[in-house]
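In practice, a research group might receive sequence data for several interacting partners and want a quick structural hypothesis before committing to experiments. The following worked case mirrors that situation: the sequences arrive first, and a predicted assembly follows.
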Amino acid sequence: MSKSISPGVARGEPLVLQEPLSLWGGVDPETGDIVEPAHPQHGENVAGRVLLMPHGRGSSSSSSVLAELLRRGVGPAAIVLREPDSILAIGALVASELYGSVCPIVVTDTDPGPGTWVVDGDRATVRGEGVQISRSKSDIE
Amino acid sequence: MDLSVRDREMLSGERGEAVQLAMKLLVAVGEAEDAPHLIDVIAGHIDACLFHGVAGLDFAERLVEGGGEVAVPTTLNVSSLDLIHPDLYRGDPETARLARRLMDAYVAMGCRPTWTCAPYQLSWRPSTGDQIAWGESNAIVFANSVLGARTNRYGDFLDICAALTGRAPYTGLHTDEGRLGDFVVELQLEDGLLDDEVTYALIGHAVGKMAGVDVPVIVGLDPDRVDEDRLKNLGAASASSGAVAMFHAVGVTPEAPTLEAATGGREVPTRILGTTELEEARRQLSRPSGRLGAVSVGTPHMSINEMRRLAELVGGRTTKVPFYVNTSRDVYEVAREEGLAGVIEAAGIEVVTDTCTYITPIMGEIRGDLMTNSGKLAYYAPANLGANVALASLADCVESAMTGGPAVGES
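A structural hypothesis for the assembly, expressed as tokens:
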């Protein structure tokens, strides 16, 4: 069963987080770099990627950090969650309201496998596109 | 989701643009969470007044321009600045200017300029059963667990949406079922450990790691040896290492007179928290090198009782290392009236109000261990401040500071 908590359609290379990540304190809001020293994916960057997070973690300030990442154009292309997370949802919705940015968030147990993922927050689907790489923001529409 | 007539009026813009946007966002989140309807909340606490970037400021100023005015009594969390001691701020002046604009925007919407992460220490606070919408993770866990008030984890933006409309989605910890314990944490600790205040930070840290987003039921705390300050430290640590928004402590917290009451009589799993788990938590939070660099206490903000203890512990001596105490302007005012602030400041201790040393540049370079009695500060300081932490009781923090060290790791 899939559910959308932020609308829009986006595609990108998946970044599957091995552990939950608090965007506040865990991601640099100016660059999208994962800066939490203890996180297994410390040093990766979320910009333009489809983030797969099992669930959110930590600070209620993560909404602000997601909105700021999207404002600066270094936010994730989309987010795929295993459990709903209103803190991430509100961050994406506010950025959409203020800047017209698109960051669909879908809650699903689908695993599209390797290659580019297309996250459709209007139809609540996530599908894979084989092994093509398509990371640029202009590809999103 | 079912909306009331008043909800629909707000959504259609009849109560102004700010309220319309707030209701639109509440409805979107309520539907994402499968809430059946919205409920009234009687109070708000806003975390979004802490500056994280221009997006948060754009949102707040848009609400002000749209005529936003809070519908229920609403307090404000810490900001990035200490307005009472502005010279303490060592950060970028442009960031300070934007942070100040953000603070002004929330005050313009009618929020009270309390600037504290411990709104439960203010003269009014919610009571058991009150439905509220609070942000700030330690305040959320304290309200639910210790006060028995009902709030979900309101993230930035959703907190002010609830305050502007007086409404919130009826899900999770607002409901009876959502508040039942999901698992038991059975304490198996030497009795003497329950006299040591550091134990409460360590229990909180360990429980947060076990719980994730679940509601733990702690069995084995002694009601005669806990007070609000110890429960504050426990809850704050659990909301840092995990996403704990509520815990029960059997015989201590209001919704847990018995284990059965806390779990609703359901069969739930039991986890043991013994000496091994406690020492593991201590190793994760405290790595004293023996060289004392600075002391910071009051994360979350010091209560008036803690200020009284601090003044007594100081005993007319002077600190030999930089020493910071974070508290609210309301508690500071009482501390001044009682003559405590004078005693503390005469010891060379820097009182920080309106903000906190772990979120804004106040402390200079720390040459040696940062000593604290706070599990939450110990959790965030290595990443936020690049500091090496020594966790100890308030008495040990003061003793080390007055003698110049060494920083001890346990009492």
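Before designing any experiment, note the following. The longest strand of chain B covers residues 292-302. The radius of gyration of chain B is 21 Å.
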